[in-house]
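Intended use. Records like the one below are meant for learning the mapping from a protein sequence to its folded structure. Do not use them to infer anything beyond what is encoded.
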Amino acid sequence: MAIPDYARTNVNTLLRAAGDGNLMLMECADALTGERRYVIAAVGRDGGDYVFTPFGHLADGNPYHAYLPPAPDNPDGFLPKGGDRDRV
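Structure written out for the chain above:
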């Protein structure tokens, strides 16, 4: 499965912000649910103003329960829920 260009661009921006010391964690509210989220964001400047670019929020609880990793034998598939990944 190919990672889209926008995702690669965002990761490169995130890495550059981290390398420059311009990465932050900020508390936000989810726009749909209103739930509290802890968002990873890059910090930039626009003249005298700060600009925050959000990249995503941290997973609540165990992140191994929130995501299914790619299946090594199927480029378009994901590993099934359960198994060794639930040990953490």
